[in-house]
Structure formats: structure tokens, C-alpha cells
Design goal:
The complex is a heterodimer of chains A (316) and B (378). By secondary structure, chain A is α/β, with parallel strands linked by helices. Chain A has 11 helices and 14 strands. In chain A, helix 3 packs across helix 4, helix 4 runs antiparallel to helix 5 and helix 8 packs across helix 11. The radius of gyration of chain A is 23 Å and the shape is elongated. Chain B is mainly alpha-helical and 378 residues long. In chain B, strand 1, helix 3 and strand 2 form a beta-alpha-beta unit. Chain B folds into 2 domains: 233 residues, no CATH class; 124 residues, 3-Layer(aba) Sandwich (abc type-2 transporter like fold), CATH 3.40.1710. Chain B is built from 15 helices and 4 strands. Chain B has a 4-stranded mixed sheet, sandwiched between helices. Classes of the chains: A alpha/beta (316), B mainly alpha (378). At the A-B interface, helix 2, strand 6, helix 3 and helix 5 of A face helix 1 and helix 9 of B.
Chain lengths: 316, 378
């Protein structure tokens, strides 16, 4: 029986001198899954993805991509993957068609199917009629879709996307994600890094990475349900700054942060904390309009987990 | 396993990029022509038309005859008749003349009496080579004049003048008119190829790093050797075209003979191009910056090709230590081959040692180039 896991990562470590960029990370990604890698800038997302693509040599640990060890046979891995880097990295001084033809050559796409694939990329990127435009003159959204098209010309079973939508407008982003969903539906494993929470919601499964360490994993729903320490209260009050000060050292409050024109407070127990906090706020001269338990968003989960991770280190 | 498919894709892409980049076009087309003209005209070891001051303290018929002898020679260009030592000295000091020629006030008188008459030549010695040559020329002019005086003197006594007891029937081979142009132009071809060849490839890999395209490129299954061949092949073709342009300019513009075999010319050119193109490629891989790599390439090729290849200074007249160093300068071997192909037309058997040396250098550098590039980021 075929192994359903297309990416297997065990205790993966990458050190740059004294700096540990990726610290014993372990996870699996299944075939046809959109696997999200969520974390702030500098968390080690790009370093991990580059190791999985064989672009960086792991310091220790093991990573199998399509069943192949990336440290031992990086070239075989590259035949089986498509990679799209954070920064646009097609040739700006080549036309759309020339870029497609070049990467078709690099991936050894047979000439019998090249014409059909070229049409597909042009169509998918919405560049019909602009095939002979210099790539450098295209807007970012089109460039990204063209880069995606070039990365999948050889129909790889696994696709690595490193912050594919940074700098792309919301409509282009949505179109981009529709493409990714279509590919996943065809059985392609899509491994995507992002720091956009709304994008993380599109993923089938997520791992949260912070300071090189994996802090949580699961589906977005699972994470929202299970990964929070405590429960969440929405507090609408004014003035916000003063309320923040009052709640920071209130008993039972794990964390508090501004969300739009309200506060999100992480507490041990929403039911019992609501009344106590309202009293404490009013005592502190804050007018409270509304206080109620809510379901956490991924951002809440993320903030809660990263602060929990950061605090013990801050004390030490 | 090497894939022709990928090599072709890279070479094709590289050609498109060169075509679209005006800077690359300039390097490919204009640089060789400009360098050929600059060096062809700028570097001349012939000493001609030296600016000369004359201080004729006598002004007699004989002294004027001697000055006319100077003026008739293409080596001297009498620009001023001075009226005292002060203006001679000022001329030499300011560099307005390189040579000052003084005829004493009793010049004709002493000749009349059959006594030796001295003339004075002051040469600006800051350029030792020119000074040396100027001294030789002026001795020649004076000697010819003094011979005439001698003949006149003898004939006036009713005897016929003797033939010169010994004369040299000199004949120069290969560069019949001893024009340094014939020697320089083939040398310039070598220097231009060294500079242009290295410069061209020094940009290729660094450009991919600087523009961020390397990240995508290394994520493809392309093998380093495919990348290298794909990158160098277009430049080898371009380099050969440039070589042909330089050679054609040498033959048709500078009128330097081309006596050897075209086959040997192109064969040795390919070997030398492999050397310089690989060198540029390695520099590009190591430096990862177009500016740094192109400057390093100029430094690594221009000075050695100029100073240590035998272009400026004959190798057998260098100090022994320097002579040893020239052995690791590939341009030295190519210089020998090219000069003999242009001027001598030596058969390939005579040049085998130089061709072998070029082959060895080409093999080493190509090998280094294949090993240089690693498909890793950071």
C-alpha cells in the first residue's frame, strides 16, 4: 500500500553558528493536504521549507519528501517538488512565454505535452494575450500566479510555497488560493508558509512555529478548540489603554490584547472571570459596555501560544 | 546524468538576456573594438617625431646642414630654435621637448681645420626607453653627417674616399619594417580576449544571485555541470566572434600580416577562451556580486596579460623569478601562439608546447568551474 504521508519530518535541526533557526521540529504532511506552516517572521519557516527542498543542508534530524531523504538525494527530491520562493524569482527580463519555456526545459517537461502545459499556465495565470510581455512589467498578482505555474510545469506531487501571497492584493490572493485548492483536490500536497491568519484558515492542517520550535499542530478547528490555554473574553470598554493597564495584573488573567476597538482577555474560566473583571474595571474608572465569552480566532490561539512560549524565556 | 535539454534551455535563456541588456551588448560588441583601437594606436613602442629644440650657436652653413639632417629624419620634430641654454632647460623641464640639441659656436671652424667638433644632445631621461632610442637615432644622424664631412675632406685632397671596410647586410624576418605595430596588434588581440572573456562570464552567476533568480534556479533539478556548460557555451560562441572581429581589425585595419593557419588560430583561441571564461565563471560563483566579480576579473586578467605575457616586456629579459611566475600565466602561451600565427606562420609542430600548456590550463579551470558551484542557499 502506498504511503499516504508525502512529507515526513523527524527532529529536524538547523543551526547557523550559535543561532538555532529550526529546533527539533517533527511533523507529517499527508498526500493531497494543504499543510500550513504558521509563524511570525524569523520563526524558521523559510529555513524549514528550504531544507525540505534540498536548498539547505539540515544540521541534524531527518526529512523525507515523497519518501526521499532530502539530505542524501536532494536532486531526486527536486524532480518531485515545485518550489515558489518568498521573493519573486522568475526572470524579469524574459517574456511570459520565455519564462515558461525555460522552466519547462529545466524540469524536462516532454515536448509532447509542453504546448498544452504552456497554455494551461497562461490560462491559469490570466495572462492570455500577454504571452509576449516582459515579466518585469507585470503586476505582482500576475507574477505570483505565473511563478506558481512555472513551479508546477512538471506536475510535481508536492508543492512548496514560501509566503506566496506577500504583497499581493486581496482579490489576487483569493484567486491564488482557489488555484491551490484545485491542485490539492488533484492530489498535490501543498506545503505553504504564511503569517496571514486568514490564509491559515484555508489550510487543512497547520503547525505553529515560534523561535524555531513547533508549538502546536492540528486543523484550524482543532487548534481553536484545544490549543488555547484558558478561555477567551471579549471586553468592549473605554478607555482601552487604561483598561489594558488594569487587566494586566488582574488575578486569573493569562493574557490581554487589543483587538480593534475592544480587548481580548485570556482567562482561566470565562464564566467566573467575567463578573470579577467587570467589577475591577469599573473600580479602576473604566466604562464597560459589554463583556462576554467568545470563540477564539486563530490569531488568539497564535498570540496565546507564542506569549506562553516567550514568557518562561523572558523570566529566565 | 547530464541532460542536453537543460543545457540548451540555459544557453538559450542566457542569449536572450544578453540581447535584452544594453550593457552586455556593449561589452560584447563595442568593448573589443574600442580596446583594439585604444591599444592599437595608444601602445606604440616606436619612437617617432620627438619634440626637439635646437640651439645653434654658430648659424653657419655647416651647422644648418646638420640641423637639416635632423629635420629630414622622421624621428625628430624640430619645434623651436632656442637662443640660450635657459630656454632649452625650460623646454626639458616643462616637457615641451624631449631632446635638446646644441651646436657649438666654433663648429664649422673646427671642421675646417680637420679637428673633431663636438655637438651636445640633452635627452629627457624620465622615459628611459625613449631616451635610449633617441640617443641612438641622434648618433646615427650625426654619424652620417660626419661621414659626409670626411668624404668631402678626402676628396678635396684629390683622393677617392674608401668604401666602408665592414658593412652589415641586415635583414629582419617576420616583421620586415620593424614596426612595433605588427608585434603589438596580435598581442592586443590576446589582451582583449582575456579581458572580454573573463568579464563576460564574471557577471552570469552573480547576476542570478543579485536578482534573486538563483533561488528558483537551484530548486530545479539542474545539475551544476549543466548550469556551467549552459552558461559558458553562449559566451564561447560570442568570444570566438569577438576574436574573429579583433583578428579582422588587425589584418584589415592595422594591416598586420596573418601568415599562419586559421585552424591553429581558432583552436588556440578556443583553448584560451575556455581558460578565461571558466575563470570569470568561478569568480562569479565565489563573489556572488556582479561588481566585485567584474573588478576581480579585470585584475586577474588585464595586468598579467599586459605585463607578464611577453606583451610589454620580453620574457627572456625578465628577472629569473618573474620568468618563473610567467609560466602560470596562460596569456603567455597564447601570446606566443598568436604572434607566431600572425607574423611567422609557424607550423603547429613548433607550437605544440604552448598549445599543450593552454590545454592543461583549460582543463584545470574547466574542472574548477564544474566543482565551484554548489546548489545550496546561504
Amino acid at each position: 500500500m502506498k504511503d499516504e504521508r508525502s512529507v515526513v519530518v523527524r527532529d529536524l535541526v538547523k543551526r547557523f553558528g550559535d543561532f538555532v533557526a529550526v529546533d527539533h521540529v517533527t511533523f507529517d504532511a499527508r498526500r493531497g493536504e494543504i499543510f500550513g506552516f504558521l509563524g511570525p517572521n524569523g520563526a524558521g519557516k523559510s529555513t524549514t521549507i528550504r531544507m525540505l527542498c534540498g536548498l539547505l543542508h539540515p544540521t541534524s534530524g531527518e526529512a523525507l519528501v515523497a519518501g526521499i531523504d532530502v539530505a542524501k538525494q536532494p536532486e531526486v527530491v527536486r524532480q518531485n517538488i515545485g518550489y515558489m520562493s518568498q521573493k519573486f524569482s522568475l526572470y524579469n527580463d524574459l517574456t511570459v512565454l520565455e519564462n515558461i519555456r525555460f522552466f519547462g526545459g529545466m524540469y524536462q517537461v516532454p515536448s509532447s505535452v509542453m504546448a498544452e502545459r504552456t497554455d494551461w499556465v497562461v490560462e491559469m495565470a490570466g495572462l492570455k494575450g500577454r504571452e509576449n510581455t516582459l515579466t518585469g512589467t507585470l503586476a505582482v498578482g500576475w507574477k505570483q500566479r505565473l511563478a506558481l505555474g512555472c513551479a508546477v510545469l512538471h506536475r510535481p506531487p508536492i508543492l512548496f510555497l514560501d509566503e506566496p501571497t506577500s504583497g499581493v492584493d486581496p482579490i489576487s490572493r483569493r484567486q491564488f488560493w482557489e488555484l491551490i485548492h484545485a491542485m490539492a483536490a488533484d492530489g498535490v500536497t501543498v506545503f505553504v508558509t504564511t503569517h496571514y491568519m486568514d490564509e491559515a484558515e484555508y489550510c487543512n492542517r497547520l503547525v505553529l512555529i515560534y523561535r524555531g520550535r513547533l508549538v502546536a499542530s492540528g486543523s484550524p478547528a482543532e487548534l481553536k478548540r484545544d490549543a488555547m490555554r484558558g478561555e477567551l473574553l471579549l471586553i468592549e470598554c473605554s478607555p482601552l489603554g487604561q483598561a489594558l493597564d488594569v487587566l494586566h495584573d488582574a488575578p486569573g488573567v493569562i493574557d490581554v490584547a487589543v483587538f480593534g476597538n475592544a480587548l481580548h482577555a485570556v482567562v482561566d474560566s470565562a464564566e467566573s472571570a467575567a463578573r470579577a473583571l467587570r467589577a475591577r474595571l469599573e473600580q479602576g474608572g473604566v466604562a464597560v459596555q459589554h463583556i462576554a465569552p467568545i470563540r477564539p480566532t486563530l490569531e488568539d490561539v497564535f498570540v496565546s501560544l507564542t506569549t506562553a512560549e516567550a514568557q518562561p524565556q523572558g523570566v529566565a | 546524468m547530464m541532460q542536453f535539454h537543460r543545457i540548451r534551455a540555459i544557453a538559450w535563456k542566457e542569449l536572450i538576456q544578453i540581447r535584452r541588456d544594453s550593457r552586455s551588448i556593449a561589452i560584447v560588441v563595442i568593448m573589443p573594438v574600442v580596446l583594439m583601437l585604444a591599444f592599437g594606436y595608444g601602445v606604440s613602442f616606436d619612437v617617432k617625431h620627438l619634440r626637439t629644440y635646437v640651439y645653434d650657436r654658430e648659424g653657419s652653413r655647416q651647422s644648418q646642414d646638420l640641423v637639416r639632417g635632423l629635420q629630414a629624419s622622421e624621428y625628430f620634430n624640430v619645434v623651436k630654435f632656442a637662443d640660450g641654454y635657459d630656454s632649452l632647460i625650460a623646454g626639458i623641464d616643462s616637457g615641451d621637448c624631449q631632446l635638446a640639441f646644441v651646436i657649438p659656436h666654433d663648429f664649422s671652424e673646427r671642421l675646417q681645420q680637420g679637428m673633431p667638433a663636438g655637438v651636445q644632445a640633452i635627452v629627457d631621461g624620465t622615459d628611459a626607453n625613449t631616451a635610449n632610442v633617441a640617443m641612438n637615432y641622434i648618433e646615427g644622424v650625426v654619424q652620417r653627417y660626419s661621414q659626409n664631412v670626411q668624404v668631402e675632406w678626402i676628396e678635396r685632397r684629390g683622393r677617392s674616399a674608401p668604401e666602408d671596410p665592414i658593412s652589415v647586410a641586415g635583414r629582419t624576418w617576420f616583421n620586415e619594417n620593424l614596426e612595433s605595430m605588427a608585434n603589438i596588434v596580435p598581442g592586443v588581440v590576446v589582451i582583449v580576449m582575456a579581458v572580454v572573456g573573463t568579464f563576460l562570464t564574471s557577471l552570469t552567476i552573480a547576476r542570478e544571485w543579485e536578482r534573486g533568480t538563483m533561488e528558483q534556479l537551484v530548486s530545479t533539478p539542474v545539475a551544476p555541470i549543466e548550469l556551467m556548460i549552459g552558461k559558458l557555451a553562449p559566451y564561447l560562441v560570442i568570444g570566438l566572434l569577438d576574436t574573429a572581429i579583433c583578428a579582422a581589425m588587425g589584418v584589415f585595419w592595422f594591416e598586420v600580416p596573418f601568415r599562419g593557419s586559421v585552424l591553429v588560430f581558432f583552436f588556440s583561441s578556443i583553448l584560451f577562451l575556455l581558460v578565461v571564461l571558466s575563470l570569470g565563471y568561478v569568480l562569479s560563483v565565489v563573489m556572488k556580486s556582479q561588481l566585485a566579480a567584474s573588478q576581480a576579473s579585470l585584475l586577474a586578467t588585464f595586468l598579467p596579460a599586459f605585463l607578464l605575457s611577453g606583451f610589454m616586456f620580453p620574457i627572456d629579459q625578465m628577472p629569473p623569478v618573474i620568468q618563473v611566475i610567467t609560466r602560470v600565466i596562460p596569456a603567455r602561451y597564447f601570446m606566443t601562439v598568436i604572434r607566431s600565427v600572425f607574423l611567422k606562420g609557424s607550423p603547429i609542430v613548433v607550437l605544440w608546447g604552448d598549445l599543450l600548456a593552454l590545454t592543461i590550463f583549460a582543463s584545470i579551470l574547466v574542472l574548477v568551474a564544474t566543482k565551484a558551484f554548489k546548489k545550496q542557499l546561504g
